[in-house]
Amino acid sequence: MNKKNKTKYAFFNGEFVDIEEANINIRSNIIHYGGGIFEGIRAYWNKEEEKGYIFRAEDHYKRMINNAKIIAMDIKYSSEELTKITIELLKKENFASDTYIRPLAYYSSLNILEKFTSDDYGFFIYAFPLEEILDISKGLNICVSSWTRINDNMIAPRGKIVGTYVNICLVNYEAKKNGYDDGIILTQNGHVAEGGGQNVGIIRDNKFIAPPVSDDILEGITLDSVIIILKDEMGMETERRSIDRTELYISDEVFYCGTGIQVSPITCIDKRKIGDGKPGKYTMKLQELFFKIVRGRNERYKDWLTPIA
Ligand code: PMP
Question: What is the spatial distance between Cα 237 and Cα 230, in angstroms, rounded to a whole number?
Fold first, then answer.
């Protein structure tokens, strides 16, 4: 086991190197213009089996390869190859804990006068141990952000394009400085888009509702998983449609979902109690089911998991 439990390696431009050797030239396009695309993937540790599983690895890499096309980048690896590289990296790291994996492809041209030069890109993956990023047991205290979500014709929010994350950082900064856990960002039309780095969904009258992808949200893999679990394990009706700001206030339950946050109840929005102000019963059931699935304790969803072996 990696005793210090911290990052030692990176897969960097075709080879495994010491993490300290994985550095980018200050003249690169990515530094100046944010021309890159990344992913956030989790691997979960199953204590009893002493084994780790990567959650929906190929789906994450497919999203990355697909959305790279938005910035005219042709990633030369396949999702299968990237999954294999990730397994190799995690085996070398040997964290024996829940892990966050960060792949990133970036424009590496050293001529800042050239913008996107499609053959000139760098690629890395590194990983680090990560448990919960916020306390997801007691309910989050959220505001609606004063910032507006970027839209598809600015820089598409559907994929994890590096430069777009300034929009998310502004939401996080404002919310935290004002004493909230996070902020929900609205579209230019005033519809609910998503949280500051996670998707959001509501439950009203026993039905789950999440914004459509055309409401400027990231095409979340956790949201997709959650919809399947709600339908197949909890028999819940689900719908994708626009949600208004005030519909959040009158929902029975509101929750976040995403690779970082996982599944977390929201119990307060803009100082209004959601439901009875306690974590919702459906959300907590979903959270329990989700953790069983991602740790390999539900055979039905084993094809979502790639063993680190
Ligand atoms: N929205 C944004 C802006 C995000 O950065 C993330 C995290 N990747 C999500 C939603 C959730 O997506 P996923 O479930 O694929 O991690």
Answer: 8
Q: What is the pLDDT of residues 63-80, one digit of tens each?
A: 999 999 999 999 999 999
pLDDT-based confidence at residue 146 (cuts at 50, 70, 90): very high
Cα–Cα distance measured from residue 63 to residue 73, given in angstroms and rounded to the nearest whole number? 13
pLDDT at 132: 85
In sequence order, the 6+-apart residues with CB closer than 8 A to the CB of 272 are 249
Side-chain half-sphere CA neighbours of 305 within 13 A = 23
**Å from CA of 195 to ligand 1 middle:** 9
Angle between helices 221-234 and 57-68 (to 10 degrees): 140
Report whether residue 218 contacts ligand 1, using a CB cutoff of 6 Å: yes
Direct distance between the N- and C-terminal alpha carbons of the chain, in angstroms, rounded to an integer: 14
Q: pLDDT grade, residue 118 (50/70/90)?
A: low
